[in-house]
Structures are given as C-alpha cells and as structure tokens.
Write a structure and sequence with these properties.
Shape of chain A: globular
Largest interface: A-B, 43 and 43 residues
CATH architecture of chain A: 3-Layer(aba) Sandwich
Strand order of the largest sheet of chain A: 3-2-4-5-1-10-11-15-16
Number of domains of chain A: 1
Largest sheet of chain A: 9 strands, mixed
CATH topology of chain A: Rossmann fold
Strand content of chain A: 25-35%
Structural class of chain A: alpha/beta
Oligomer: homodimer
Number of strands of chain A: 16
CATH class of chain A: Alpha Beta
Number of helices of chain A: 8
Chain lengths: 273, 273
C-alpha cells in the first residue's frame, strides 16, 4: 500500500518509464519530469542502484542540469548498510524529484527493500514529491513487481516471477521494454495470479504519468498496452501445469499512445485530443 | 464471402493450424482432422503449393495414412496453369478432406488465387468437406489474409500487409506461429483497419476447429489469442503516421486453450470442461 497522505497534501506523480527514453532530441518524458520536479527551483536526487555502471548517476545529473533543473545529485548506494546513511536520507528529504535509473530491478529491491531509503521514497511520494523510474526503476514502483520472466505472448503458470516492490501504487502491475522484448505473456501471467490489478506494458521511450487522482497520461513515442482483468470471466491459472498455456476469458485491452489517458480507479481509457 | 451452401447441406469444418503441429506423439490436431475427413472411409487431398520442397506433399500422404485415413494424395501445383488441370479438379471433387501445407502464403495466393482449384476448394467447403491448413495454409483461409508484417506487440499503420485470401471465412482474420514470432502488433493493425472481424492468433501446434455454426474449438498444446474489436471505442489508425504507434481503446482479449470455444457470431468465449 502507498504511504498515507496528510489532509490537503496531494500525493506526487509516479512516473514509470519503459526504458531507453530520449535524452537529447525531443526528450519529452525527462522534460516533463523536470517540470514536475520544480524546474529551475527543483532538486532531483538520482538513485543509480539498479545499474552496476559507475557513470550512470553522473550522466543523469548532467542530463537533468541540461534540461534546466535547479540542481541534481546522484546518490550511489551499492549495499544495504549504505541505504541507512543519514546524509543520504537528508538528500532525499530535500529533493523535489527522485529518479531511479535502469539496470536490474532485483538489485534495486534486494538493496533498498525495507531500508530507510525505501521508506523515505514512500513518504516523500505521499508528501507530493514526483518519483520517476526507467526500466528497472519503473518495474520496482508497484506493490507487486515483475522481477523476471520469459518472452512470448501466451501466459503460462511459470512465465513470470513476482516480488514485492516499493509500493508507490497498488493499482498497477508494470512491465517495461514491452514491445521490444515481447512481454505480453508475462504481464498476463502476473495479472492472472490475482486479477485485482490493471497491467500496463510500457514500450521504450514511453511513460505513464500517474497523477494523485489515479489517472495516468501517456507521454512518449511508443505505446502503453493496458490489460484490465476486472471483468475476467474465467482463468485456468489455478489448474494449469508448469509450461502449459493458461486460458483467460474476458480481458479488456487498450493500446494507448502519446496524450491518451487511463483512469486506474474507474478503469476507463480516453483518447488524447 | 464463403460460397453459399445448399439447403440441408452443412458447411464443412474450416481448420486453421498455427504451424509445427505434432506429427508423431499426440498428434491431436491431425487425428481430429482425419476423423472429420472420414477416417477409414475418407480421402485427403494435399495441396503443398505454399512449400517449395518436393517432399512436403508425400510426407503428409504418409502421415495421414499412418493416422488411418482411407487414402491420401498429394497434388503438386507450382504454376497457375496447373491449377486449371481437370485431373486435379477431379481429385478435389472426390476428396472428403483437403489439407494445405505451410510455406509462403503469398506463393499460395498468387498461384491459386482465382483459379479453378481455388473455386473448387470454396465450393467443396460449402458442400461439407473439411478444409485444414497449417501456417501459410491457415493464413490464406480468410477473406482478408495477413500476407506479411513485422514482429512486436504494438500496432503501427505499416506493421502488416493484407491481401485477399481464399474466403473460407469472413468473420476472422488469422495469424499463426503467434507466440513464437511475437505477432500481436500485426494482428491488431490488421483489425484496426476495419474492425468488423475478430482476430485470432494461433500458437504453433494449436488449431481452431471452426464448425458450420461459426463456433470454433481450440485443439492443441498452445493458445489461441482472440482479439474482439467489436466494442472498439476509439482508433487513431486513420491519423497515425508510418511507424507511429496506433491507439486502440476498448478491445476484448481472450486467451483460449485446448477445449475452450469461441462463437464468432455472438463473440462469446466459453471455457472447456
């Protein structure tokens, strides 16, 4: 469950990005994130924990500064003990935007899960701070995170591995590099375990800007595949054997592109203008 | 449009198969086809035109004989002129089942399209003969055939090439090798051009046995992905630029496996027992 908000304080935007977002020409997603994080007056804290490359954090610092953020700082955390550091927590408390880079979402969840850093990200979100993440940084956002799986369109019982995520939303399960890595089957498998969530598959260079009202807007050059299992009439997930395809009857499917919106509460999609 | 039937004559089953159907252990699909084609008393005519390999036809002759068909014959046709041959037409008129092999569906459509062989297949279907086809042989069955396209889950205006098919059904557009070749995007693109059809994506070793009542049953080890665009609320296909993703709001999606059924008239899916 997301952290509770206080009266008259709106939750911040939660911005999962499908990976490989444009950084130089037409960086629509990062520009919009910089604006939500306060632009000239803002300060972005970058968490490069998912990545094992030392230059990932510094590269995003430079990028956000080029895009006009007031200041940006990279907070390298490579071990759980570092995620309790008071200096780092103070940085997160000061930030007006938090950005989680790509890499391996299991690295993110195993290093940050349950630490002071994870708790701080959650309460900063409840206090109105915008939290964005790309690729692995997007995968970790929901309560139920897709940790891994195999490609292909057809769901099977063992097609996906779920793990607890950061819990910035519990309405969605999020997959990324969606079109590029053929991930419909694992998203369907994740949904069929317990069809209370909506599934979103983010293409590369495509983001969902999830507002405090639970409505998200699509930004970027690809599509967001929305699978709504709320009207599911039948699932054979309970009986299917390992490797066997699973029957799912009565899913709703929307392909949303730049400017389209989806209300995760009413489960209604609307075309952009 | 399928050929009209005469009073009291039921149309034959139309059986598109997703390719790579099992031939030795548990050949459920081919066994069911052999039974529908009359079993011991039946005669199957094989059209290996899609394939450029000489042994494709003879291999299926042997296979169907092993599975207990009364007799089987391969009708090699490699040029349009051969598709007017009276001897071949007589073979098709005698057959109780017709089987089209895999290969290249454009080879099938360019060689057979508009010939006496194509017309005979159509009227034999209306007379009750079962027509099966695998891979390219499945693709060519509907009125609107998927001739080619590019892989990936997200539809774009140029993701798929359509061509006229044999017209054994006009309720469905059929894609094959579905899970194995990541073809959701091209199926969605094909549907979005004109959303009056239902789209089915057949995994390998998976078939739809379409009965004279328009209800099909799934047979095989994979899944049939059914996309029903009849409640489509919005499509941007009309405005999207080449290469740009297309918005599609309000699709229905079913993943059907062995024993499940779909009614192409009422557009209702039912789980098997």
């Amino acid at each position: 469950m997301p952290s509770p908000t206080r009266p008259n304080v709106a939750r911040g935007f939660v911005v999962p990005i499908g990976g490989a977002e444009r950084k130089k020409r037409n960086p629509l997603i990062l520009e919009r994130f910089v604006a939500l994080a306060g632009g000239n007056d803002g300060r972005i804290a970058i968490l490069p924990t998912a990545s094992e490359m030392d230059d990932t954090g510094p590269r995003y610092v430079e990028l956000f500064e080029d895009l006009g953020i007031g200041s940006a700082v990279s907070l390298p955390i490579n071990q759980r003990a570092e995620a309790e550091d008071e200096g780092l927590i103070a940085e997160l408390e000061e930030a007006t935007g938090i950005f989680m880079t790509g890499g391996n979402q299991l690295r993110l969840s195993t290093i940050l899960g349950g630490t002071a850093v994870a708790k701080t990200i959650r309460h900063r979100s409840a206090e109105g701070v915008t939290i964005a993440g790309t690729s692995a940084g997007a995968a970790i956002m929901p309560e139920h995170m897709i940790a891994g799986g195999t490609p292909g369109a057809t769901p099977t019982p063992n097609k996906v591995t779920l793990a607890p995520g950061l819990g910035l939303t519990n309405a969605l399960v999020i997959d990324q590099h969606f079109r590029q890595r053929d991930r419909l089957g694992r998203l369907l498998a994740a949904l069929s375990y317990n069809p209370f969530m909506t599934g979103i598959g983010l293409d590369e260079d495509t983001a969902a800007f999830i507002g405090p009202d639970g409505v998200f807007e699509v930004v970027g050059s690809g599509a967001v595949t929305v699978v709504d299992p709320s009207k599911l009439e039948y699932s054979s997930m309970g009986q299917a054997m390992r490797g066997e395809p699973v029957s799912l009857i009565g899913l709703r499917l929307h392909i949303l592109t730049h400017g389209d919106r989806y209300d995760t509460v009413s489960r209604k999609a609307t075309a952009g203008s």
